[in-house]
Amino acid sequence: MAEEELPGVLILDIGGTHGVLEDLAALLKKHFHLITMKEFLENKEEMSKKIQSIFVFECRPTIDRELLESLPNLKVIGNSGVGVDHLDLKMISSFGVKVTNTPHAVADPTADIGMALMLASARRLVEGNVLNFLGPSYFFGIPHFCFDRDYLSESIFGM
Asked: Do 49 and 95 fall into the same domain?
């Protein structure tokens, strides 16, 4: 399929501090003609007809009434995050536009971090790590000369 035949997707930008990651943009290019917000604003008349979807990455671009009114062929807004709190769903649906998100995208990493935090808390890992690097006098007021620092840092005391 030629690039012109692909449906247009509006994104904020590619790369940079707020743009879509370059790897993700490469994946999107396989299925969509990417139109950045800058390209859209420079040529609203022509670009507005081509855009059928908006890809929201890290809450950008901002979806407001003015943007929706300028996109007559918009069918779907794809949100790259889990939540849609930053989108006015009632207003968007009044334009006949659907909203999607990725609810299970971070389920496994969130569970992993949760387990790691529980284990770290139960085993006082953070305190042990600080103690290992700063020495027991940091927590207990014990004079530093009472413990051989090299011996402590090589032991499992900090674990």
From this structure: yes
Nearest to 51 by CA among 65, 64, 41, 62: 41
Residue 131 structural domain: 106-138
Instruction: Say how far apart CA 65 and CA 92 lie, in whole Å.
Output: 8
| Same domain membership, residue 12 and residue 86 | yes
Q: Is 24 buried (19+), middle (13-18) or exposed (0-12) by CB count in 10 A? A: middle
3-class state of residue 51 by DSSP: strand
Count H helices, E strands: the chain?
A: 9, 5
Q: Which residues contact 38 (CB under 8 A, 6 or more apart)?
A: 13
Do 119 and 71 share a structural domain?
no
Task: With CA atoms as reference, report the closest residue to 14 among 40, 39, 36.
Answer: 36
The tens digit of pLDDT for each residue in 125-145 reads 887 777 777 766 665 655 544
d(CA 149, CA 159): 15
Reported as a single tens digit per residue, the pLDDT across 26-56 is 999 999 999 999 999 999 999 999 999 999 9
